[in-house]
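Q: Can someone sanity-check these two? First one:
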Amino acid sequence: MTNALRKVTDPELGIDIVNLGLVYGMDIDDSNLVTLDMTLTSVTCPLADQIEDIIRSAVGDVVPDLVINWVWSPPWGAEKITSEGREQLLALGFKV
């Protein structure tokens, strides 16, 4: 599942949602329903629906159903970016 999520990139930053630290948690119940706790870089992100569609497409072959639980507390911050994500952002010219 995590490998599928690594294929989902933030449309604005071009870095996957796992390395950006947007995925806060994941639970898979006995019926294989996945609940994904995640956030976005901003509560007012205009691309939320697009990102959700990309996630559903990416995991569709892995899990039969997915619920995204949008989490706003704690808010996302640059400290949540993984070291791999930081390297990717630096390569793209972002200062992190």
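And here is the second, same format, sequence then tokens:
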Amino acid sequence: MSSDNQSTTTGIDLQFDRDHLWHPYTSMANALPTYGVVSAEGVELQLEDGTKLIDGTSSWWACVHGYSHPKIVAAMQQQTAQLSHVMFGGITHRPAVELARLLIEMTSPRLTKVFLADSGSIAVEVAMKMALQYWQGKAKPNKQKILTVKNGYHGDTFAAMSVCDPEGGMHTMFGELVTKQLFAPAPQSRFDDDFNPKELSEIDNLFEDNHQQIAALLIEPIMQGAGGMRFYHPEYLRSLRKLCDKYDVLLILDEIATGFGRTGKLFAYEHSGIEADILCLGKALTGGYISLAATICSNEVAQGVSDSPAGVFMHGPTFMGNPLACSAAIASLELLKENRWQGQVRAIESQLKQELADAIDYPNVKDVRVLGSIGVLEMNATLNTAELQQQFVDLGVWIRPFSNLIYIMPPYCISSSQLSKLTHAMKTVAKQISLPNDTSAFISHG
């Protein structure tokens, strides 16, 4: 498949795309190549020239059931014909009610109040606003800071940016508009290793010194995603829950990337056996078919928000509770309730561990790690995204590296042979990078 950005017979004008369309984290002066997709089914993307690529990313971790699943498609078609959108102010509808019912059943008992918004970043914004209003309702308005850990990622909007990694994130370029939060060291004990309680000392000190100003602790449970695909020990998360209880701080868990089975549990916090005060969901909530997010909180948090001077929660997006998105989410969650995902994810994890293990012997592979349906090769230097992307396309797969990581998070319905094609491609490219005197692939390209 050529990426020469020429117009094609399908009508995808790649030159116009290059000249006028801004893609994520891309320069308009030196745009990354794009590949025209015309259809998708199962785990395959079809390009404009007929080439089919096995999708190793689930479209940024969202399409857990694969593409064109008949149950989700039918639910969306039926809902579009009936009611695609209506304002949520003063109006409700069956898809929103049924989705909330499912989410309350699936998550932990403490979580009972559901706020439906547009995207993961907004779910985090909503959670942070809930935390601040809660403490206003508890007559502790000075509790306005958020405590989090380094290497985290929670979205690109301004409040969400403020709790992303302060060095690798976007704090410096947006100056004083990004609120200064409190950051503890990133968790270090690996998921499958012994836990070192000494790593809690600094975050414990931050709690002790600042708890009167801390409204909430916000963290991605078990896996730090865009901050490095790092899997940390469940005991670390259990310890954070205890610290929040000790110092009277809310616990916000960002399950946008980890939720709905990705780590081998329905929700990653289940590895630690804890509950959140506020939970953020997104990405796979609709099976990746349309944007939707949910922020779910406890009765206590909802009461505190309602007792705040405003008397109401101060947030209300135009597309809140969109019926089309809610219908897609209901269909996706019903597929999850059939529990096939559990066997699928276990099989993916087993195969990833087996097929990626020997990559640790490659000269420029720093680490190999697997959790649930996530497989990661961490390299010793930053990768050239454009160059490696073309290599993966040539190998018949869609794998998009970032920073120094080659990783996959495939749809759960992937076959063993399709998964082997992904792991073979990962190792082929990683080994090629590792050739002596080959430094070209380590040039950062955004």
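A (reply): Looked at the second one. The first strand starts at residue 37 and ends at 41. The chain has a mean pLDDT of 94.
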